[in-house]
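USER: Write out one fold?

ASSISTANT:
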Amino acid sequence: GLKTILLCNPLVGSVSQLPPMSRPRLFPSIGLSVTPTSIDVTVAGDDLISPYAVKNLSSESFHVDAGGFFSLWAMTSSLPRLCSLESGKMVYVQGKFYCMNYSPFSVLCYEVTGNRWIKIQAPMRRFLRSPSLLESKGRLILVAAVEKSKLNVPKSLRLWSLQQDNATWVEIERMPQP
């Protein structure tokens, strides 16, 4: 059914409810960007339109600024086909929201200003276990266990940084070291 999104500012003790989205979503992935002058929210997931158990992935965005102006929820561009989004979590880095796609592993990127979704190939996607995204110093980082044996036991934990071209990953750390 319909979900309520609350914005909480623990510093001043305020809680604000956003207007309802135009469509209910099952286990949505939610992204939030907060600056001193605005808040942007993007929500993506199965919008439950199809009565035939077919995934119908879509996304909506919402904007509010310090002057009190806010937009109503607006549908964004279509998500790439065959997506299986991570529930609940998006990471915001330099004007883009990122979330994990699990079928197979890849990263979905929503460019706010261009209003478009793109799919980014994950490094070593056949061998990744429990991947997670995070932002560090203005960069998108992918952290995952890497499994390269028939025993299904992770051999290492690795960190990759997405480069400016939004297509290339560079390994920045590995534990244990080879």
